[in-house]
Specification:
The structure holds 2 protein chains of 2 kinds. Chain A is mainly β. In chain A, 0% of the residues lie in helices and 53% in strands. The chains are: A mainly beta, B mainly beta.
Chain lengths: 116, 113
């Protein structure tokens, strides 16, 4: 079964750092570009980062540029999001999503709460 | 950035009736070299991740019921549910993947009348 499973979320104070992981299984991870998308409580969807198949190209939303870093390890079938200088408005469920004519597969998400 | 504007914000439809959700992009998402519209539709139920329904504006993802259809080109798009079923109550989002930052509409909440 094809699936994506996020982990690494939690509660932390403003200014803190966190690394999210997304484990892929059931498909050839290295064939796909990947993204992170987040959703603040009760709000809509916000795309935040993209990485291509071989990690040579990354993109970021302005809201996270310079603070977040996307990466992947195709040997481990894993996607990562390093989040630094976290702010209260980064509080959200973070989803990893696979690209295939739109975002055709999503994980269940991991919750990140930034609060003092 | 390409702004995606959905209408209406919410919609109440009777069981078995048609539901129509509109999405307008602030610039064209039609890529002339391949004549494809880089527009997708998603369904999200409470506590669940979004689910891809339609991509390339009108291609239904495998396994999605054929009561769901997408249409439109350029800047104006529509998601139609031909006969509303109980399990279709959800929030629906459009998204452009023509250019970064990839942007979503704010969502349309579909409810029973």
């Amino acid at each position: 079964e094809e699936q994506l499973v996020e982990s690494g979320g939690g509660l932390l104070q403003p200014g803190g750092s966190l690394r999210l992981s997304c484990a892929a299984s059931g498909f050839t991870f290295s064939y796909y570009t990947m993204n992170w998308v987040r959703q603040a409580p009760g709000k809509g969807l916000e795309w935040i980062s993209y990485i291509n198949k071989n990690s040579t190209t990354t993109y970021y939303a302005d809201s996270v540029k310079g603070r977040f870093t996307i990466s992947r390890d195709n040997a481990k079938n894993a996607l990562y999001l390093q989040m630094n200088s976290l702010r209260a408005d980064d509080t959200a469920v973070y989803y990893c999503a696979r690209v295939s004519g739109g975002f055709d597969m999503w994980g269940q998400g991991t919750m990140v709460t930034v609060s003092s | 950035d390409i702004v995606m504007t959905q209408s209406p914000d919410s919609l109440a439809v009777s069981l078995g009736e048609r539901a129509t959700i509109n999405c307008k992009s602030s610039q064209s998402v039609l890529y002339s070299s391949n004549n494809k519209n880089y527009l997708a539709w998603y369904q999200q139920k409470p506590g669940q991740p979004p689910k891809l329904l339609i991509y390339w504006a009108s291609t239904r993802k495998s396994g999605v019921p054929d009561r769901f259809s997408g249409s439109g080109s350029g800047t104006d798009f529509t998601l139609t549910i031909s006969s509303l079923q109980a399990e279709d109550v959800a929030v629906y989002y459009c998204q452009q993947y023509y250019d970064t930052p990839w942007t979503f509409g704010h969502g349309t909440k579909l409810e029973f009348k």
